[in-house]
Amino acid sequence: xxxxxxxxxxxxxxxxxxxxxxxxxxLKEPAEEMIVRRTNSAGVVHISKILGASLDMRADRNVASxxxxxxxxxxxxxxxxxxxxxKTIQPGSGIGSSAAxxxxxxxxxxxLLEVGLSPIELIPFALDGExxxxxxxxxxxxxxxxxxxxxxxxxxxxxxSIPIPKEWHVTVLHPQIEMLTSESREALPAQVxxxxxxxxxxxFASFVAACYEGDGVRAALxxxxxxxxxxxxxxxxxxxxxREIALxxxxxxxxxxxxxxxTFWVSLNAADARSVRHGIEVFMQSQSMNFYxxxxxxxxxxxxxxx
Length: 307
Ligand code: HSE
Prior knowledge:
By secondary structure, the protein is an alpha+beta fold. Helix content is 36%, strand content 24%. It has two domains: 4-162 and 300-306, Ribosomal Protein S5, domain 2; 169-296, GHMP kinase, C-terminal domain (Alpha-Beta Plaits), CATH 3.30.70.890.
C-alpha cells in the first residue's frame, strides 16, 4: 500500500486561437509538482503546504483539494488525504495554473489508492476543481493537463486526443499582471457574426486536419484567431508589439494563451525559437513590467507519477 505519491503536472495553452473552450495543449515547461499523502481521517482532505503562490489553504476553497475530494468521495472515502502543493505555474497567468493543480490532485489520488481509472475517466473529477476556480466546466486546460498532447473537447463534453503538431517550439510570455478569466470572458460579444463563425470553423478544421497529417507547418499556419483574439488583445499588455517582434524573429504564428495575459508564439525550429525569445526579452526588459519567459515544446505526457 502506497503512503504517498509525487505527481508532475504541466502548464497548458487553451483555445490555441481556433478552438475557443474546445482545444488545448500541454507544455513541457513550466510544470509543477504535488505530493498526495494517505491519512487516517476518512473523507478528510487537508492541504498541509503550498509553496510558490499565495492560495487559499482551506480544503473547500482550493482547486486541488476540491478535485481530490470529488474523486475520494466517489470511492466511498476509504481514507483521508494530505496535499503538499508546489506551484510554479502562477495563478491568473493564462497557462492553466488551476488545471495543473486539479490534474495533479486527481492523478495523485488515482495512483495513491491504485484506483485504476483511465486519464479520460479522471477528467470530470478534475473539472469539479477547475469549475470552482473559473466558474465554468470547460476542459480545454484540464484535458491536456491530464492527457498530455493536444486535446479536443466537443460541446457534449466528450474529449479526445489529436496528434501533436510536429516541430513546434513554443515561446510563452507571461507578463506579471493577474487577469481573471471571468473579466476576459466579459470582453467577448454575446453574438458572433455568421461569416466570422464560418471562417473560424474552417481554420479550426484545417488545424485538426494538419495535425492528423503530421504537417506541423500547416498546423501552425492554420491558427488564425478571427473570433476571440480581436476582442481580447487590448487587455494584453503590449500584445501588438510582442506579436510584431515574435513574427519578425521567426515565429510562424501565435496569440493569447487561454484567457491571457500570457501569449504563445510558435516557431518551427530551435534557432528561430531562440531568436523569438531574445527579441521578446529585449523588448520586455525595456518596459517597467516584470515577466516570465519560457522556451518550451508540447508535452506528449500529461500529469503523471514521478519518483
Ligand atoms: N477557454 C477559456 C477562455 C480558457 O478562453 O476563457 C480559460 O480558462
